[in-house]
Amino acid sequence: MTARLRQDAIVRSLRRHGTSTVADLVEEVGASRRTVLRDISALRDAGFVIHSEPGRGGGVQLDPQSVQTTARLSVDEVFALLISVASMRAAGSLPFSGLADAGLAKIEKSLPRDKVRDLRRFMECLYIGPLAPQVDISNMGTIDAALLPAFETAFLKRRLLRFKYRDAKGAQTDRHVEPQAMLILPPLWYLVAWDPARKDFRHFRMDRINGPEVIDGATFQRRHVKFEKNIRPLRNLPR
Fold first, then answer.
1. Alpha-carbon distance 7 to 117, whole Å?
2. Domain match, 175 and 79 both
């Protein structure tokens, strides 16, 4: 269990039981006493008010009004929020855009510097435009939840991506590609990638991709993708 998952489990346990002993928390999360104490300290640093009383009858208690004051979001989680807002704005269906932007700005400001750097690099790969009216969306499916975390690694580390792709006729093929950009044409999302086997760029509808897997070791160089005039890059984060 990672530190983040342990700390989340500790918060849930304290909210559920009111008061717990360190020994109970140790047993619940399967970690050493020292690790649990370190996790409690990290939770306090994150803004949680946790009281502790030593001795028999004492224990650890979370203030019921206590909330986390620092963001603990990964790059792909923040990116998912950003692209969701961006795609809704592009589709003209973001009624509370001011509040959404203000909330995202607060999240961005609370991120560590290295996460902001990764997020900026990730955002540079995102493009938005209108969907052509003749495109059939009647068979649109859901996007594999594993795709965005795989994208984070593939784009930031420039690693090749392997996945299974189902075309419009239902035929499935194995693909090995170099991810170059992400394109949102609401309501469809596309991966734009260089296909070494075909020596050309390909657009893959994300709802037709499954089983994404980053290929370790092999890297690639960024290529310039030529988009139509009505496709624009998403504005980067404010510096």
1. 25
2. yes
Please name which of 6, 61, 59, 64 lies closest in space to residue 36, comparing C-alpha atoms.
6
**pLDDT, average across residues 138-162:** 92
Q: Is residue 51 part of a domain?
A: yes
More confident residue, 233 or 95: 233
The DSSP line for 3-42 is HHHHHHHHHHHHHHHSEE-HHHHHHHHT--HHHHHHHHHH
CATH number of the domain encompassing residue 8: 1.10.10.10
Angle made by CA atoms 84, 74, 46, in degrees to the nearest 5: 120
Domain count, the chain: 2
Residues 177/237, Cβ–Cβ less than 8 Å: no
Q: Are residues 80 and 50 in the same domain?
A: no
Task: Say how far apart CA 157 and CA 55 lie, in whole Å.
Answer: 50
Structure tokens at 13: 């346990």
Residue 68 is assigned to a structural domain of this protein:
no
**50-66 residue pLDDT tens:** 988 876 656 898 887 76
